[in-house]
Every structure is written in structure tokens, then in C-alpha cells.
Design brief:
The protein has a domain at 91-242: Alpha-Beta Plaits (2-Layer Sandwich), CATH 3.30.70. It contains 10 helices and 14 strands. The protein has helices at residues 9-16, 27-38, 74-87, 105-110, 112-131, 188-208, 245-255, 292-300, 322-332, 346-354, and strands spanning 46-50, 57-61, 93-99, 142-150, 156-165, 167-169, 175-177, 235-241, 265-268, 272-279, 284-291, 311-315, 370-375, 385-387. A 5-stranded antiparallel sheet has the order 8-3-5-4-12, with helices on both faces. A 4-stranded mixed sheet has the order 13-1-2-14, with no helix packed on it.
């Protein structure tokens, strides 16, 4: 994936990181800055490969492969899309967004892994609560949930994008469509209330175990006077997203995004960073200028805990159940289940997706590159061609 943007987040890291207070930067945030600033540069090292057809050697700068990097990861996203296309049910999906009040932002930042897990747990429990009731669905449904922590202006805004199929599996192992004629799956206001109650119950449990410290402790005997009850808990439901391949492309918009893309950065000078953003309150695009330190601080706020899983599948869409239920739903609609892609390597999946091998020689466009070695040396043979933008490491 090429990145032709004139300004990059890596440039802001190199230019302004010395202004940050090192005592307020976590180990994970230091790691993000180190890897992004070195991504696809000689500092990251090189892979050496040659083409058996034309005999030309090539050097490829290594990608950092950090999930917060907005330059690399294109092929990883494409592999993820190919796998999800094979898992998609042939039905419509509802897009439901669970958000929390701004009052909890500080608690999320200081206890990110714990609070993110609660957000996932309470969102799924809320969906299950309504799906189990016969007046709403009366069936077991599923959910694919994707965590986001940012708004367009890089402000901290933890929320969960959830895709829920328009129906579920009954106790008799039959597919049942939602009872709302496709207009909505569950009433949004009721979703908000149940989600709030479940989330606050979890906060009370964590408070009792001293796992978190709230600015205003929750008194279970006087709970309705707590600030959390003075703010609206917003659960937003969008119109259904079509099934099949379209739903996978829809999911991909959220699956591997980072806080800001390089294309949105308009200018970097000695003091400030200017970038474009969309103001949803005014429903129009806008431009924002922040000093370099503040821009970098906002970007680093969205660093996830190490090994934290930000995309999760539940119910009939989880790994343990999906094969059985995918076949069942296809049979219900009289459709043929898509061919399985299990066992295919990433290279084979990318070849299917691109229509050509990802290792194709960029010189002769005919032979497949053969990996020779990888090294941290910054220089190669004189006749080598440097190819700085390549996601793929050949190991």
C-alpha cells in the first residue's frame, strides 16, 4: 500500500516527541512512536529478494506492522476481508453503536483494558437480553464488535461498533428473521437503558473490589443521584447494511482504521499540525490546527493495551459456532455455502483477492520473488532496487 501523502504522522513523531513529558508516556506509547518513525525506512531493516526470471535483486524496507501505524497493514486488512467474506451470513445486518458518557473518559484512560472489556461484555449482554425475549426476536443471535476510541478531531471517545444479523437461531435450530420488517431490530431507547444499568452494575462490582477508583463513588443506595444518571447513554442504530460481500466491505471501514490517516494531515510547521476533520454536529467538513505536542498527545491517547483484542465475535458468529450456523442459514434461504478458504496461506488468499501473486516481480511482472535473507544493514548490492512501500515480509 503506497502512501503518497506529503505529510505523515511519523513526521509529527520525529518533530515533536521531544516536547512530550516522558513520565506521562507509557511503554506501549513509546513503542508505537519508535516503530512508526522507523516504519519502511532503513532504520527498520531490509528484506533481500531476487527474481529467478529476470535475475534482478530487490531490497524492500521492512514494515513495522504495529496496528497503530497508518502506513502499513494494507495486506493484513485484505486478508482479514477475505476471511470475513467466507463467514458472512446471507442476511441484512444492523449497525449498532454503544457509547458511554464523557464523564467516564478519565476512568477509561487510566483503566483501559478493564473498561474496554466491560464495554464489550455489557454491549453483548444487552443484545442477548433483547434477543432472548420472544416479543423482540426469541432466538439466539450474534454480534461482531469493533472498538474505537477516537472522534474525527482525535478527542478521546470510546465506543463500540456492533454488527448484528437481522435475525437469529431458534431453539429448534431454525432461522428466524427480526419481527420489525427490517426497520430496526430492537428499540433504541430501551437498549440505552438496559446498557446503562448493566454497565453501572459492573462499575459497582469493580468499585467494591478496588479495581477502579471513580471521581464520584457510586452509592448503590442512592444510585439515581450519581452523575452517571444525569447524562444520556446513547445507543445509536443505523439502517441495515446489506449482507454478503457488501457487509464485509462495510465492516472493513472500521476493522483496521487508526485514529487519523496521513491523507488528512494538511500541513506541519515548526509549531503546529493542521488536519481535516468532519464535524458531525454541524454535518460539514472542517479544518483544525493543534500545536504539535497536543496533536501527538491526542494521537497517543488511542494506543491500545498490548495484545488487547479489539475485534470480537459473539453468539452464532463466534469461531466455535459459525461454520454450523452459516450452513444452516444458507440452507434456510436455499443458497449454496461459499467455498471454504480454511488452510489457505496468506499468500494464496492475496493471490485470489488481487488476481496475481503479491510476490510478483515489480521489474519483469512475470517471475515470483524468492526471499534470500533479511538484514538490518542500510546498504545493499549496487544493482539492487529499493522498494520502500511493501507490506509483505517474505519470511
Amino acid at each position: 500500500m503506497h502512501s503518497d501523502a506529503p505529510f505523515k504522522v511519523a513526521d509529527t513523531i520525529n518533530k515533536f516527541r521531544h516536547k512530550l513529558n516522558p513520565d506521562k508516556i507509557s511503554h506501549d506509547q513509546h513503542k508505537v512512536m519508535n516503530q512508526m518513525s522507523a516504519c519502511r525506512t532503513p532504520a527498520m531493516g531490509i528484506n533481500l529478494a531476487y527474481c529467478p526470471e529476470c535475475g534482478k535483486q530487490h531490497l524492500f524496507y521492512k514494515s513495522c506492522r504495529n496496528r497503530h501505524c497508518n502506513v502499513c497493514g494494507g495486506q493484513k486488512r485484505d486478508v482479514w476481508i477475505a476471511k470475513r467474506k467466507a463467514d458472512a451470513l446471507p442476511v441484512d445486518y444492523f449497525h449498532i453503536v454503544f457509547t458511554v458518557p464523557e464523564y467516564l473518559n478519565a476512568t477509561f484512560r487510566h483503566n483501559s483494558a478493564v473498561m474496554f472489556n466491560i464495554l464489550f461484555k455489557c454491549s453483548w449482554e444487552t443484545i442477548c437480553h433483547f434477543a432472548s425475549q420472544h416479543k423482540h426476536l426469541g432466538a439466539k443471535t450474534g454480534m461482531t464488535a469493533l472498538l474505537h476510541t477516537w472522534g474525527q478531531n482525535l478527542a478521546y471517545h470510546p465506543h463500540l461498533h456492533c454488527l448484528v444479523p437481522c435475525g437469529g437461531i431458534t431453539p429448534q435450530n431454525k432461522w428466524r428473521n427480526a419481527k420489525t420488517n427490517g426497520k430496526y431490530i430492537f428499540p433504541v431507547k430501551a437498549l440505552s437503558v438496559v446498557f446503562r444499568e448493566k454497565f453501572i452494575d459492573e462499575l459497582i462490582s469493580l468499585q467494591k473490589s478496588n479495581s477502579i477508583v471513580l471521581e464520584h463513588p457510586i452509592d448503590p443506595k442512592n444510585i439515581f443521584n450519581h452523575p452517571l444518571y444525569k447524562n444520556k447513554w446513547v445507543v445509536y442504530a443505523k439502517l441495515p447494511a446489506n449482507g454478503g460481500e457488501q457487509i464485509v466491505e462495510y465492516i472493513a471501514r472500521y476493522s483496521h482504521k487508526v485514529a487519523i490517516s496521513n491523507s488528512r494531515i494538511l500541513n506541519i510547521n515548526n509549531d503546529n499540525v493542521t488536519f481535516s476533520w468532519f464535524d458531525y454536529r454541524k454535518s460539514k467538513p472542517d479544518i483544525m490546527t493543534l500545536n504539535g505536542e497536543e496533536f501527538l498527545r491526542r494521537f497517543l491517547m488511542h494506543t491500545l493495551p498490548q495484545k488487547f483484542v479489539k475485534i470480537r465475535h459473539y453468539g452464532i458468529l463466534c469461531c466455535r459456532n459459525k461454520d454450523k450456523y452459516i450452513e444452516l442459514v444458507h440452507h434456510f434461504y436455499g443458497l449454496t455455502k461459499p467455498a471454504s478458504i480454511k488452510g489457505l496461506s496468506n499468500k494464496e488468499l492475496l493471490t485470489l483477492l488481487y488476481g496475481k501473486s503479491p510476490h510478483l516481480c515489480p521489474n519483469c511482472k512475470n517471475g515470483e520473488l524468492v526471499f534470500q535473507c533479511n538484514t538490518n544493514y542500510q546498504r545493499g548490492p549496487p544493482d539492487c532496487q529499493i522498494m520502500p512501500y511493501n507490506d509483505f515480509n517474505f519470511q
